[in-house]
Write a structure and sequence with these properties.
heterodimer; B: Helix Hairpins; Immunoglobulin-like; five-stranded mixed beta sheet; 10 helices; elongated
């Protein structure tokens, strides 16, 4: 629908529309496109890494460039691909699932996106301005504080700005889910995806400030001569490790929980059953979120915290396996007794279960501290976290895209291409990463630019590189599928999957205001309940009336642009103090926008009852 | 599509067999062929947890296979609506309690071994070595023995050797997979771990904490010899005369060049604590150059002429010296005859 409108209005208006939009559905598109592009960039970096490691003593890329690649691959995939793609799905789906017309803070929603995008751009500017960050995505001090050039500065400023965007997005969804649910949508009737979005938003709220603090300290160390992590000035490098992982571990759950939510919805829809053990699933989700904050030091078993600390964190980590196991079994029993349709979305969900089980079991193995002394910082860890992040999060994103594509764009992704994507990507994924468990134990540490011949590491690395190419083919086929579908595929109805939740009760793509009349929710899987009782749609909770909608605004874009400019000022004032003018200019723009926003009343607009009735008649 | 599961499993089993047949990695490098106290303890724990986890995986996969085979949508029953089961309390309890029991089975040995590997009660009566990590080489200072070496750590077999570790620059991690798990080196605090080799051998060591450009080239060796051989080595190393005159004329010239070019300013020979660059006391006995290259005269000359090309980012590239290729060859001659002890890596390899 949006493209059709754009063609009528012209390209400039189309761009302007997206620059100023505060509509959660369009912001979802923005997140999807930006996150998708960064995903391809991160994937390209991964391919270069695997080409370098295809044979021993290779010099396809230089050691320094390799370090930039591995740093940017990790940083890009976590912060610029996985996070925004999850925000894309949350934006597209959560307001619809709870029967809301928009998020609680549409303006902030837009601001969150633009901050993320400009932060991501700063991060990648390093490639063109003398070197990308090269201290690893974990940026351990003192390597990160002494790394020459401006590479790590791009990391610090880029993540600080995009992190602020993520934090804003998280707060927005937290408030949206708490405050904007339709009448009757109690907490224990929320779809699992909305539940996981709620818990993830809570985790963002508590985890990201730790990263913010850490990045500020790092920024002061690098740009303003402080010594928080500098031992010779009385600082301590371990503090960075703690701050980073107090953020970094919950971050893993921030990514994986929404994927769990996707699978819960997909498995239930395509086995035509309600989710088995819904209550247990909800409690398992919140418990994982809670325990996720208690286990950060398992990334630091080799730091030398002592056997008592290591044992405590080992046991806390193992405890997370219990709620995760509960989830796996409840998914299996959701399928049990159902009538299973296997399509692309379902394939990703079914591929996820064994893949993630492997990632989960190696997670328990890693939790055994004394054994982790061997696994730590080797390819075993690389294998493990790709099993959970690719096998969990990326599979979840693919499932989500296949499942909700018709809701977002009104068209079903091509099934044949979808299956080709799945099988190549799935096979490639296991080829790439399974063997890496063994490589790690056979003595290959991670972040190695090259490995020596004669250490029995050749075969494993070759297999791994071949797998990476298969994954790349899968990803490319998906891009082809998206283009093919948008050109060729026919429009579908609002409910192509025989869905169970509220988003399937409205047209695809949904109108600007989502729900003409706020729906009345009468239980879990509200649409399914109505269908079973022979009704066509959801019972409205209110008579047809004027709808109040927020106005678009360019301010979030300009505000983020200001911080982007100021970021460069901060980075380059080390070389030349006159760059401080950039800081003043950029901060001036941002603060000016904030002032404008504060003093100028923007009361939004109304869609009138008469227009709604007319639209109804046309449909 | 039926049958793909079977094919896939078969492929998996085949792949696994190939792996088993190709061995568990290189002897004296792989953590899967443990030769020391720490690595054996770790492998035990790995096996316990792996066993439990394989059991869990099999249970999940059996249910998974049944579900996929039995509950696919059937032809002619497209409109079938299955009963909307809410859940089952008994099942929930089962899959909460059994995993807890399984985790306890892993947790008990985990805690026991973690404490055992951190046991420092015997540190005072044992051999202590102060380890310093540097970009991108290792320095070993034998406490109370007046012995310093770099890159090669000689230890006696059958006893715990305590390593007190610190870094001079960025973080590093000391890892000899076949002997023990790893531990990080920090600039502000000393970390202590012990290693114990049960068999003689030359063990490969690696830096496991990302430390910059040549992180992947920061290999070192642990040379485990019998206690008698070790005592001999200690004696030889303590009696080194740093100024001893080499036998050949080339080497003598090399010695002069070594001093004239201030090589000695960074590279100590003997037990001098100066350690800006690697200590070269027993350089002639090393098995590798810079940890990763073959220990040949040609390579040494190449290194002196252009260290950056062999180990990017190393500090010798910035050092201020100017030697011709011929001079470098003489320096190499000098360095290669620095063999103060009869106890060499070969002693560890031949005396089985």
């Amino acid at each position: 629908m949006s493209t059709a409108v754009a063609q009528k209005k012209g390209f400039g208006a189309f761009i302007w529309d997206y620059l100023t939009t505060v509509d959660h559905k369009k912001i979802a598109h923005l997140y999807l496109v930006a996150g998708g592009l960064f995903f391809l960039v991160g994937g390209l970096e991964a391919l270069l890494i695997r080409i370098q490691l295809i044979k021993p003593d290779n010099d396809f890329v230089s050691a320094g460039f390799y370090n930039e690649l591995l740093t940017m691959h990790g940083t890009t995939m976590i912060f610029l691909a996985a996070m925004p793609l999850i925000f894309a799905i949350m934006n597209a789906v959560v307001p619809l699932q709870i029967g809301a017309r928009d998020v609680a803070f549409p303006f902030l929603n837009s601001l969150g996106f633009w901050l993320f995008l400009f932060g991501g751009l700063i991060l990648n500017c390093g490639w063109f301005l003398g070197g990308a960050p090269d201290a690893g995505w974990t940026a351990y001090a003192p390597l990160s504080t002494v790394s020459p050039g401006h590479g790590v500065d791009f990391y610090v400023l880029g993540l600080q700005i995009s992190g602020a965007g993520t934090l804003i997005g998280g707060i927005n969804f937290l408030v949206t889910i708490i405050n904007m649910r339709a009448p009757g949508m109690t907490y224990m009737r929320m779809p699992l995806f909305t539940w996981t979005a709620l818990v993830t938003s809570t985790l963002i709220l508590f985890a990201f400030p730790a990263l913010t603090v850490g990045l500020f300290l790092l920024m002061f160390d690098r740009l303003f001569g402080s010594g928080f992590f500098n031992a010779s000035m009385g600082g301590n490098s371990v503090i960075w490790e703690h701050l980073f992982w107090i953020f970094g571990h919950p971050e893993v759950y921030i990514l994986i929980l929404p994927a769990f939510g996707v699978f819960s919805d997909v498995l239930s829809t395509f086995s035509k059953k309600r989710l088995f053990g819904y209550t247990a699933m909800v409690f398992a989700t919140t418990l994982i979120g809670f325990l996720g904050f208690m286990v950060w030091a398992h990334h630091m078993f080799a730091t030398g915290l002592g056997p008592a600390a290591n044992s405590i964190f080992a046991i806390a980590t193992m405890a997370i396996a219990v709620p995760t196991g509960i989830k796996i079994f409840n998914w299996l029993f959701t399928l049990w007794g159902g009538t299973i349709t296997i399509n692309s979305a379902m394939l990703w969900a079914l591929g996820f279960i064994p893949s993630f089980t492997i990632g989960g079991t190696t997670g328990v193995m890693l939790a055994a501290a004394a054994a982790d002394y061997q696994y730590h910082d080797t390819y075993f860890v690389v294998a493990h976290f790709h099993y959970v992040i690719v096998g969990g999060v990326v599979f979840g994103l693919f499932a989500a895209m296949h499942y909700w594509w018709p809701k977002m764009f009104g068209k079903v992704l091509n099934e044949t291409l979808g299956q080709i994507t799945f099988w190549t990507f799935f096979t490639g994924f296991h080829l790439t990463f399974f063997i890496q468990h063994f490589l790690g134990l056979m003595g290959m540490p991670r972040r190695y630019w090259t490995f020596l011949p004669g250490q029995h590491l050749e075969t494993g690395n070759l297999v791994s590189s071949i797998g990476a190419f298969l994954m790349a083919i899968g990803a490319i086929v998906f891009v082809i599928n998206v283009i093919y579908t948008s050109v060729k595929a026919p429009k579908v109805s609002g409910d192509p999957w025989d869905g169970r939740t509220l988003e399937w009760s409205i047209p695809s793509p949904p109108p600007h205001y989502n729900f003409k009349q706020t729906p009345l929710v009468r239980g879990l899987d509200p649409l399914w309940i109505e269908k079973m009782e022979g009704r066509k749609g959801i019972t409205p909770a209110e008579p047809l009336d004027d709808i109040h909608m927020p106005n678009p605004s360019i301010l979030p874009f300009i505000m983020s642009l200001g911080l982007f400019i100021a970021g460069f000022g901060f980075i380059y004032q080390v070389d030349n103090l006159s760059y401080l003018w950039l800081v003043i200019l950029g901060m001036g723009i941002t603060l000016g926008c904030m002032l404008t926003r504060s003093v100028k009343d923007d009361l939004g607009h109304h869609i009138h009852k008469e227009d709604l009735e007319k639209e109804g008649a046309e449909q | 599509m039926k049958g793909w599961m079977g094919k896939f499993r078969a492929l998996g089993i085949f792949g696994f067999l190939m792996l088993v047949l190709s061995g568990c990695g290189k002897e004296n490098l792989s953590a899967l062929t443990p030769k020391g106290y720490g690595s054996k303890a770790a492998l035990n724990l790995i096996n316990i947890s792996l066993g439990v986890m394989i059991f869990v995986f099999i249970v999940v996969m059996v249910i998974y296979a049944i579900v996929i085979v039995r509950f696919r949508k059937k032809k002619g029953r497209e409109d079938y609506i299955p009963p909307q089961t809410e859940g089952n309390k008994a099942l929930e309890v089962i899959w909460t309690v059994i995993p807890i029991i399984l985790l306890v089975i892993i947790a008990i040995p985990t805690v026991a071994i973690t404490f055992d590997l951190a046991d420092e009660s015997a540190a005072d009566e044992s051999l202590n070595v102060n380890v310093t990590g540097n970009q991108f080489w290792w320095h070993f200072n034998y406490e109370g023995e007046e012995i310093q070496t770099s890159q090669d750590l000689y230890i006696p077999t059958g006893e715990k050797v305590y390593l007190n570790m610190k870094t001079s620059d960025v973080l590093h991690s000391f890892w000899v997979p076949a002997l023990s798990g790893k531990m990080d080196l920090h600039p502000e605090n000393e970390n202590t771990m012990y290693i114990q080799a049960d068999e003689e051998g030359v063990y490969d060591g690696k830096c496991a904490e990302f430390c910059g450009t040549s992180h992947s080239l920061m290999d070192f060796k642990v040379i485990a010899v019998s206690p008698e051989e070790f005592d001999q080595w200690v004696e030889d190393m303590q009696n080194v005369d740093p100024e001893a005159q080499p036998e050949t004329a080339d080497a003598q010239e090399g010695q002069q060049l070594f001093q004239d070019n201030s090589c000695i300013g960074c590279h100590a020979i003997g037990a001098s604590p100066a350690a800006t660059g690697p200590n070269l006391t027993n350089f002639g006995d090393r098995t590798t150059l810079a940890g990763v290259k073959e220990h040949t005269k040609d390579n040494i000359v190449d290194w002196i002429m252009d260290p950056e090309s062999m180990k990017p980012g190393n500090k010798m590239a910035d050092a201020n010296y100017d030697v011709s290729r011929e001079e470098a060859e003489k320096i190499a001659d000098y360095l290669l005859q620095l063999q103060p002890s009869d106890i060499t890596p070969e002693s560890a390899e031949t005396n089985e």
